[in-house]
């Protein structure tokens, strides 16, 4: 049993691990690539189904290109030496912030209520906040994973610096406003602090600050009307089925109508009628629920859980605090987005506008999620290299 911050991961015996390494086959690498490839294939089919019937639609082709670029980037990132990568972290972080600032200039465009996009023409657009996730992730891993001599966990200065580094992109994203993505950054930050082994008193302080923040927002009436309406719909789904609750209502109908086995791929009536808004992006899981049924939706979730489990495995096996914190941050990022996306489509959480990693349509999200997978593979590669060399010398 290996401890990962407040988490524990049961690892295979060292003898079996050395045997796999010496054979040149690493289970963690396969545990990343195979679920990611399966989820991508399912996602392409679901996007195809969700966009069929639209005259002149090229969304499936665009998604296929994004998936190809994403996997190429995943492979390239997996080959990077983490020690070399850390030297460029400040530059990557500043580039991420530059993209977020550019969105707030005339270069930015408003799509689906958020001023979070940059449009370059010919239908080419990207969301800088998706790439800022990876940049902030690397910056936090560098701060929390660079321990001084004699330190076993990050000190107060490192934790405060990490909070300050994360606060800048969170503030810029809140100005768009894109509160769902801002919440991803917050969860990612607190998760990485937890994985780094920071003292528990920090989390008591975070809880107190969070409670005080919620109370302050409530007392000062800072909640916007549409946000309050979403919370009311969550408490009573039938309160406004044709208004604010329309998305959630149609999503539940689509998922519920699929039953155990679903209606069959390309045979979903809700999907074909485009009753669910944004069903190829944020609500892609409704297509899986209607056309592939409970078993198909469960398969998507299990594939994601398999990928996340391997991420935890890699984090626990990393010989350096930097690798542990970096891999743990990737897991927090992907796990939280999956939890929120599936939860909101099933009416268990408010609508947050977060895509389902590796499945939803979207060039920026597609590429960034696979780059995150590449970071996990890079940590795994750094972990197993010494074992391979040692086994070769012993041979």
Automatic annotation (TrEMBL):
UniProt keyword terms in alphabetical order: Cell shape, Membrane, Transmembrane, Transmembrane helix
PROSITE patterns found in the cross-reference section: FTSW_RODA_SPOVE (PS00428)
Keyword flag Transmembrane: yes
EC number(s) recorded for this UniProt protein: 2.4.99.28
Places the protein is found: Membrane
Key word Transmembrane present: yes
TM regions (residue ranges): 25-51, 63-80, 92-111, 131-147, 154-173, 179-195, 202-220, 292-313, 325-352, 358-379
Major localization class: membrane
Catalysed reaction equations from the record: [GlcNAc-(1->4)-Mur2Ac(oyl-L-Ala-gamma-D-Glu-L-Lys-D-Ala-D-Ala)](n)-di-trans,octa-cis-undecaprenyl diphosphate + beta-D-GlcNAc-(1->4)-Mur2Ac(oyl-L-Ala-gamma-D-Glu-L-Lys-D-Ala-D-Ala)-di-trans,octa-cis-undecaprenyl diphosphate = [GlcNAc-(1->4)-Mur2Ac(oyl-L-Ala-gamma-D-Glu-L-Lys-D-Ala-D-Ala)](n+1)-di-trans,octa-cis-undecaprenyl diphosphate + di-trans,octa-cis-undecaprenyl diphosphate + H(+)
Biological pathway: Cell wall biogenesis; peptidoglycan biosynthesis
Pfam families to which the protein is assigned, alphabetical: FTSW_RODA_SPOVE
Topological category with respect to the lipid bilayer: Multi-pass membrane protein
InterPro entries reported in the protein's UniProt record: Cell_cycle_FtsW-rel_CS (IPR018365), FtsW/RodA (IPR001182), RodA/MrdB (IPR011923)
Protein name per its UniProtKB record: peptidoglycan glycosyltransferase
Species: Microbispora tritici
């Amino acid at each position: 049993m290996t401890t990962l911050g407040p988490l524990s991961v049961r690892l295979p015996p060292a003898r079996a691990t050395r045997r796999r390494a010496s054979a040149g086959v690493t289970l963690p690498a396969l545990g990343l690539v195979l679920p990611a490839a399966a989820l991508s294939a399912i996602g392409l089919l679901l996007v195809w189904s969700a966009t069929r019937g639209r005259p002149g639609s090229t969304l499936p082709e665009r998604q296929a290109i994004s998936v190809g670029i994403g996997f190429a980037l995943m492979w390239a990132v997996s080959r990077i030496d983490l020690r070399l990568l850390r030297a460029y972290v400040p530059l990557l972080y500043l580039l991420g912030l530059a993209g977020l600032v550019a969105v707030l200039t005339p270069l930015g465009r408003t799509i689906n209520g958020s001023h979070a996009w940059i449009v370059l023409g010919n239908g080419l657009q990207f969301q800088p906040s998706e790439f800022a996730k990876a940049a902030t992730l690397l910056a936090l891993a560098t701060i929390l994973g660079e321990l001084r001599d004699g330190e076993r966990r990050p000190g107060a200065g490192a934790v405060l610096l990490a909070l300050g580094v994360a606060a800048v992109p969170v503030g810029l994203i809140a100005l768009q406003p894109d509160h769902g993505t801002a919440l991803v950054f917050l969860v990612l930050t607190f998760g990485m602090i937890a994985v780094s082994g920071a003292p528990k008193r920090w989390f008591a302080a975070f809880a107190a600050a969070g409670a005080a923040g919620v109370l302050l927002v409530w007392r000062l009436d800072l909640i916007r009307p549409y946000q309050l309406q979403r919370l009311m719909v969550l408490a009573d789904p039938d309160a406004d089925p044709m208004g604010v609750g329309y998305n959630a209502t149609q999503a539940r109908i689509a998922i519920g109508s699929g039953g155990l086995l679903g209606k069959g791929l390309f045979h979903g009536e809700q999907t074909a009628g485009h009753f669910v808004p944004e069903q190829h992006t944020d609500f892609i899981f409704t297509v899986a629920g209607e056309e592939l049924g409970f078993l198909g939706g469960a398969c998507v979730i299990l594939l994601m859980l398999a990928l996340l489990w391997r991420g935890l495995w890699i984090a626990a096996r990393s010989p350096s605090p930097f690798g542990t914190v970096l891999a743990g941050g990737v897991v927090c990022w992907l796990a939280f987005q999956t939890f929120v996306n599936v939860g909101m489509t099933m009416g268990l959480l408010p609508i947050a506008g977060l895509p389902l990693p590796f499945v939803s349509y979207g060039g920026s999200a597609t590429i960034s999620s696979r780059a995150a997978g590449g970071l996990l593979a890079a940590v795994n590669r750094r972990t197993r290299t010494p074992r391979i060399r040692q086994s070769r010398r012993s041979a």
